[in-house]
């Protein structure tokens, strides 16, 4: 049976996902709310949605809304998710899950106690590199995995200034200093989306920013943060290690590939650059770029992209990769002709959530998995603030833990 959705936040991400939820046959109606009513009204008109609510509370109080999708600013997700779950709504949340151990634990408690669906929309779970590595691991081609790397290399000059200005208003510099390691899921989620383990300890190093433009300035920052780049080395429960980079000042073509990965095993390895991806073993090197690269599937003037900064649009209009073909068959035909994004992930994420709500099954990036993608970054940021001190990472268990 189809259910109704409420979109919370009508910013740059919301338009694309509102359109996909609107066209999914498992969703009967989509409403939206935003603190700026004009943005909500504009999205209703652009995407042909059912209507707008004047507040989040009004949306939660409505018996006609069964689930909400939260696309508010990244440090606000935790409390909003818990409030929605406690109000009896299923929840799809943009990344990150939350920004503290307590907020993450509160979401898991609410999911367990309500029995409702929670899913974090981590794009890297369907990044073509992660899909390929997941398949190779299932085949046993890696042998024993012992090392993984994930880089989220997204330079501030390639769209983030405009994005923060759009969302933050006159005080945007205070929030543009958001700590890189508190947005870790595009790097960690890609590595662990293929490798079923979790981080147990971390040592991290932050790089103090020197641009001098008031961004990443602790005297201005809402987060008391002056790190623009950070690197973290994690110990993993399965044995071995994972290294992630979260870079916001970097000479790298983020618009070509903003997340990149490496995995090393005893029998095979995978490595990725901006335009080249290879599979390697003792016999040689195989260029698999043709399996990994995505192709544009939407016009730049798509109404769903109206508020997206031009420098970010490539990330939002990418189509499927060849490696997606085996999974693509389950995507409703109504979605397959619509814009996709973040290396072919958006269609899969929307379909995962709709299916999970519909059949009551856990989505792939459920609350417990989301915690394993998010919480290590929270502890890593603390480690960086403490000069690289090695810190233990709490694990919040598995879905079947009581």
Q: Quick recap of the structure?
A:
35% of the residues lie in helices and 23% in strands. By secondary structure, it is of the alpha/beta class.
How would you portray this structure in words?
- The strands form three sheets. The protein has a nine-stranded mixed sheet with strand order 14-13-12-11-7-10-9-8-17. Strands 3-2-1-4-5-6 form a six-stranded parallel sheet, with helices on both faces.
- The protein has 15 helices and 17 strands.
- It is globular and about 60 Å long.
- The chain has helices at residues 14-23, 37-47, 56-61, 77-86, 101-114, 128-139, 156-168, 172-176, 185-194, 289-292, 313-317, 325-328, 333-336, 346-359, 367-385, and strands at 3-8, 27-33, 51-52, 67-70, 90-93, 118-120, 145-153, 199-208, 227-236, 241-247, 259-265, 269-272, 277-281, 284-287, 294-296, 318-321, 391-392.
- The two termini are 29 Å apart.
- It has two domains: 3-123, Rossmann fold; 124-330 and 363-392, Dihydrodipicolinate Reductase, domain 2.
- By secondary structure, it is α/β, with parallel strands linked by helices.
**Whole-number radius of gyration?**
20 Å
Low-confidence sequence ranges: none
What's the CATH class of the largest domain, please?
A: Alpha Beta
The largest pleated sheet is described as: 9 strands, mixed
CATH superfamily of the largest domain: Dihydrodipicolinate Reductase, domain 2
The name of the CATH architecture of the largest domain is 2-Layer Sandwich
Number of helices: 15
Strand content: 15-25%
Number of domain units: 2
Average pLDDT score? 94
Distance between the termini: 29 Å
Give the overall shape, derived from the CA principal axes.
globular
For the largest sheet, list the strands in their spatial order: 14-13-12-11-7-10-9-8-17
Question: SS-based structural class?
Answer: alpha/beta
Helix content: 25-40%
Number of strands: 17
CATH level-3 fold name of the largest domain? Dihydrodipicolinate Reductase, domain 2
């Amino acid at each position: 049976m189809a259910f109704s959705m409420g979109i919370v936040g009508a910013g740059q991400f919301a338009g694309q996902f509102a359109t996909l939820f609107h066209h999914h046959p498992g969703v009967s109606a989509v409403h939206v709310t935003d603190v700026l009513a004009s943005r909500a009204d504009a999205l209703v008109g652009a995407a042909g949605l059912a209507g707008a609510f004047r507040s989040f509370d009004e949306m939660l109080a409505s018996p006609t809304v069964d689930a909400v999708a939260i696309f508010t600013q990244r440090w606000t997700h935790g409390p909003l998710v818990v409030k929605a779950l406690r109000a009896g709504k299923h929840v799809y949340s943009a990344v990150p899950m939350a920004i503290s151990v307590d907020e993450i634990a509160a979401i898991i408690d609410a999911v367990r106690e309500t029995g409702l669906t929670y899913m974090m929309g981590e794009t890297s779970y369907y990044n073509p590199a992660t899909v390929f590595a997941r398949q190779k691991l299932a085949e046993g081609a890696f042998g024993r995995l012992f090392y993984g790397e994930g880089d989220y290399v997204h330079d501030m000059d390639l769209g983030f200034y405009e994005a923060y200005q759009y969302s933050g208003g006159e005080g945007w510099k205070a929030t543009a200093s958001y700590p890189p390691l508190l947005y870790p899921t595009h790097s960690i989620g890609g590595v662990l989306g293929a490798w079923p383990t979790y981080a147990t300890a971390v040592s991290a190093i932050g790089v103090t920013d020197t641009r001098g433009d008031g961004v990443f300035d602790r005297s201005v920052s809402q987060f008391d943060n002056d790190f623009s780049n950070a690197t973290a080395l994690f110990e993993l429960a399965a044995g071995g290690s994972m290294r992630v980079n979260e870079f916001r000042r970097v000479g790298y073509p983020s618009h070509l590939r903003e997340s990149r990965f490496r995995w090393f095993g005893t029998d095979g390895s995978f490595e990725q650059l901006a335009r080249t991806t290879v599979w390697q073993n003792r016999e040689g090197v195989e260029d698999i770029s043709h399996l990994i690269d995505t192709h544009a599937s939407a016009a730049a003037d798509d109404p769903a992209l109206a508020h997206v900064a031009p420098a970010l649009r490539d990330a939002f209009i990418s189509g499927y990769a060849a490696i997606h073909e085996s999974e693509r068959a389950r995507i409703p035909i109504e979605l397959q002709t619509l814009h996709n994004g973040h290396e072919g992930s958006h269609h899969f994420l929307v379909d995962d959530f709709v299916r999970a709500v519909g059949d009551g099954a856990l989505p792939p990036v459920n609350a417990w998995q989301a915690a394993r993608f998010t919480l290590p970054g929270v502890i890593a940021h603390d480690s960086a603030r403490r000069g690289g001190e090695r810190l233990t990472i709490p694990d919040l268990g598995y879905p079947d833990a009581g």
